[in-house]
Amino acid sequence: MDDVTTAPVLSRALRIGPIELDAPVVLAPMAGITNTAFRRLCREYGAGLYVSEMITSRALVERNATTMRLITHHESETPRSIQLYGVDPATVEGAVRVLVEEDRADHIDLNFGCPVPKVTRKGGGAALPWKLELFREIVTRAARAAGDIPLTVKMRKGIDVDHLTYLDAGRIAEDAGVAAVALHARTAAEFYSGHADWDAIAQLKQAVTSVPVLGNGDIWSAEDAVRMMAETGCDGVVVGRGCLGRPWLFGDLARALGGPDAASGPPVDATLGFVAQAFRRHAELLIEFFEDEVRGCRDIRKHVAWYFKGYPVGGDTRARLATVSSLAEIDELLATLELDAPYPGAAAEGQRGRAGTPKRPALPDGWLESRDLGAEASCALAEAELDHSGG
Predict the structure, then answer these.
(1) What percent of the chain shows pLDDT beyond 70?
(2) Catalytic residue positions?
(3) Number of domains in the chain
């Protein structure tokens, strides 16, 4: 593993409203990934703000059972952070009120960055800031409802290179009273392909001056985070795919960017034995979260390729790990590995998780014809609020 020897010249606490973080690091919400189990695991290695999976506002207001489970934090999680998705100002405001009045969150983030077709097709996620007044109303009402609870916004550069929204949205969010703005420096059309445009983060930092600006995109190591902050002037980093199968990345980030007490241990020597131990701990926490050993083990299966990327783990063992149903099976398989195998270097580094190729964003009919919200767009938004997925 790379030894991050860069002196922490950028070391400073990040303040988001009343919340002060020992390291300017945020775990990005990832569907099916950033549940309580994964957040707890990441927290064991480092410091920062660990955000929930995306929660659907309508489902929260209607107290969908799955949603209510997803917003429940373990007692060790402080501060508690929840990300909301919604397209209707009244519904988003209502969801924020539920979280505040029932004391379910210490920080709330609004999602305006999701590029997934089922979201953008209905005018949500990265598509929504194109409608300026709708965006303004959602953020303003949500910030007002949040009261003393800091509310932040996460967004993308825009829909595509011809329909950029991030500078307008950043200024609107700042005026609405948010505590910070975060930018994934890609458009919806880029999805997760190519390279993030860090210059856009620098431009947003110049445009938004009264609240922190956080950068997101292509942070695969602590060195990447140090470089992003130095090149863009951003106040902190948001880390998503880079921590898949590497929850100890938050320890590396804390040592590189945080104060002397930010990291919970010495630099990691990521031998195969260390990785195996982290994998098993993740499985334990998933079993606790789901209160079901089979379900927890079923969930850990998707993490196998990420944890063991680049390590000498044979195809048969990988395949068997991807079908486990119990901790006993996991222990049996991990015991067959060369646990003293050293960190494989470049083979274990770089991009992980989804990437894909650029694609034309799915949008409601006529969405790009105007930045005002017309009748057809209103119908699309009404349909979006019927989503009861719970996350």
Answers:
(1) 91
(2) 114
(3) 2
